[in-house]
Design a protein that fits this description.
methyltransferase, 3 domains, alpha/beta, EC 2.1.1.220, SAM-dependent_MTases_sf, Rossmann fold, 7-stranded mixed beta sheet, 8 helices
């Protein structure tokens, strides 16, 4: 995700080397995460792509297969990683993630607590937001899931900014060592209200908490708990609507009535074009836009609250 140099600075300009993780881009809805190995090859319908041809090229390069097909080699940013990662749990997508980072007011140097880790989609974006001087401490009660997340953070280059712990935050709360140190807290739990008292102790004054819940009943109960020590409580549902932009072409000289009707329309248009001084475009085209039929609907509710300052 974050290509780094020895000084741990974020860098997308360096060249691809063996062992790097790259996103192989075929089209916007077909991408794969691939680890670069000198003697390996990537196969798809466009042919075979030798990894040895990738080494030394900058991220964003177009590379060709033995059959002349091509793909792009992209740096594994948090946005792309969200689209290709293995789903061990339900994940947050780009619309929700960007909103969370904005409303949690994350900047480099922040300390963030997260529970639970899940597939790590949000965690990678949190890490980039607080890097290079901040840190994300994320917890999951499932040991195998936490181990898989550690491996992913190593692959994507964020392990310097993320620490994964195994802990039942609902039952045990956050570790006492973070008391009063967290700038922000994110909860993705079945019963977030059980973790709110602990979250209150971890936050700095004026710190912000966000809870993600798929059901409105969870939101209602969480808000009841938040009212005791938090203010500015807000709940949002992010619905993203994407559009398909297509160019439609029609030959104005073609008709359906043996060419006569089409020819008349073509001559009339030709006359108008000549009279206006404009040049005729032989391939008349129209740009059309329509909503994408596969747009995602409800994912969950995001509830934000700010810790009350002591009077």
């Amino acid at each position: 995700m974050l290509p780094t140099d020895p000084t741990k600075k974020i860098s997308f300009t360096r060249c691809i080397k063996e062992g790097d993780l790259v996103i192989v881009y075929e089209r916007h809805d077909c991408m794969k995460a691939v680890k670069v190995c000198q003697n390996s090859a990537f196969q798809n319908r466009f042919g075979a792509f030798k990894h040895s041809d990738w080494i030394g090229k900058p991220f964003g390069s177009m590379v060709f297969s033995n059959k002349g097909g091509f793909v792009y080699l992209l740096a594994p940013t948090p946005e792309l990683w969200t689209l290709v990662l293995s789903h061990r749990t339900q994940i947050l997508y780009i619309a929700d993630i960007s909103f969370v980072i904005m409303y949690l007011e994350l900047v480099p140097g922040c300390l963030v607590l997260e529970s639970g880790t899940g597939s790590g989609s949000l965690t990678t974006s949190l890490a980039r937001a607080v890097a290079p001087t901040g840190h994300v401490y994320t917890f999951d009660f499932h040991e195998q899931r936490a181990a898989s997340a550690r491996e992913d953070f190593e692959r994507t280059g964020v392990s310097s900014f993320v620490t994964v712990g195994v802990r039942d935050i609902q039952g045990q709360g956050f570790p006492d060592e973070f008391s009063g140190l967290a700038d922000s807290i994110f909860l993705d739990l079945p019963q977030p209200w059980l973790a709110i008292p602990s979250a209150k102790k971890m936050l700095k004054q004026d710190g912000i908490l966000c809870s993600f819940s798929p059901c409105i009943e969870q939101v209602q109960r969480s808000c009841e708990s938040l009212r005791l020590n938090f203010t500015d409580i807000r709940t949002f549902e992010i619905l993203l609507r994407t559009y398909e932009i297509r160019q439609w072409r029609a030959d104005c000289g073609q008709g359906t009535g043996g060419g006569s009707a089409g020819s008349i329309r073509h001559k009339r248009k030709q006359h108008l074009i000549e009279g206006s001084g404009e040049k005729e475009n032989p391939n008349n085209s129209t740009v059309m836009a329509r909503p994408n039929g596969e747009a995602r609907g409800h994912t969950g509710y995001l509830t934000f609250a700010r810790l009350k300052c002591l009077s």
